[in-house]
């Protein structure tokens, strides 16, 4: 109930008792009672108005609290939004830097990959060149092996020819002049410049060839081994044919002298006598 406080106060002042001496006691009592009832009514009205005002004040306080709460919520949301915007801006800056760093890393990786590719191409070219050189070396080695094998067969042929020539020479009875005029065959290449070291340590194309040659020489008889030494072909393939012939002639003279010495020795005479 909304009442006007000024109206209530005016009603109270207008209803104030106006005591008169002529009035009797009962009328005064009734008037006082009536005034008291009015005051009680006014008091109740004022109390009702006061309660209504209290309710209005409480409602306004509630509205004010709600308004303050909404304001605080709005300020908090605004502050959170500002923080979120700042965080998003910082994240955007970090992302931009990360993208820049990633782009730089990608460029560095591309550069490194190009360098690795160039090095790989260079190594591939070097490997191709090395393979070509290796193939050429293999070809040269095969040619050298073939040449040495050919020389070995040639030397064997020379040794056989010289051995047969020395055998024919031993079977012939020639004078010293004929021995001096004798020359080895000109159609073969007589190896020269032979030393005792060369005879002791021959040079062959491979250890297998040297082992085979050593076994073959070991299996020879004394005469064949002497002829083989007299051939003078072990380790060199070029030289003077006259020197080779001189070497062979001296070897033949030494063999004939040894043969004549054995024939004229007493043991030989006794063996011949008691036959």
Automatic annotation (TrEMBL):
<feature type="region of interest" description="Disordered">
    <location>
        <begin position="235"/>
        <end position="275"/>
    </location>
</feature>
<feature type="coiled-coil region">
    <location>
        <begin position="36"/>
        <end position="77"/>
    </location>
</feature>
<protein>
    <submittedName>
        <fullName>Uncharacterized protein</fullName>
    </submittedName>
</protein>
<feature type="region of interest" description="Disordered">
    <location>
        <begin position="200"/>
        <end position="221"/>
    </location>
</feature>
<keyword id="KW-0175">Coiled coil</keyword>
<feature type="coiled-coil region">
    <location>
        <begin position="106"/>
        <end position="133"/>
    </location>
</feature>
């Amino acid at each position: 109930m909304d009442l006007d406080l000024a109206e209530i106060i005016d009603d109270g002042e207008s209803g104030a008792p106006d005591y008169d001496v002529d009035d009797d006691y009962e009328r005064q009592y009734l008037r006082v009672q009536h005034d008291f009832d009015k005051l009680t009514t006014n008091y109740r009205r004022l109390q009702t108005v006061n309660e209504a005002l209290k309710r209005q004040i409480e409602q306004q306080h509630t509205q004010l609290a709600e308004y303050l709460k909404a304001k605080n919520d709005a300020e908090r949301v605004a502050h959170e939004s500002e923080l979120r915007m700042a965080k998003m801006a910082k994240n955007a800056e970090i992302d931009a830097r990360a993208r820049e760093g990633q782009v730089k890393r990608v460029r560095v990786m591309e550069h490194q990959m190009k360098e690795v590719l160039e090095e790989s191409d260079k190594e591939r070219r070097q490997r191709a060149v090395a393979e070509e050189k290796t193939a050429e070396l293999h070809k040269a080695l095969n040619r050298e092996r073939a040449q040495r094998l050919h020389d070995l067969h040639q030397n064997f042929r020379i040794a056989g020819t010289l051995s047969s020539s020395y055998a024919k020479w031993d079977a012939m009875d020639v004078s010293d002049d004929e021995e001096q005029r004798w020359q080895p065959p000109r159609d073969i290449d007589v190896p020269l410049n032979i030393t005792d070291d060369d005879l002791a340590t021959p040079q062959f194309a491979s250890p297998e060839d040297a082992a085979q040659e050593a076994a073959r020489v070991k299996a020879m008889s004394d005469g064949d081994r002497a002829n083989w030494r007299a051939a003078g072909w072990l380790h060199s393939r070029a030289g003077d044919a006259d020197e080779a012939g001189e070497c062979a002639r001296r070897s033949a003279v030494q063999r004939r002298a040894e043969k004549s010495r054995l024939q004229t020795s007493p043991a030989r005479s006794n063996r011949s006598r008691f036959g």
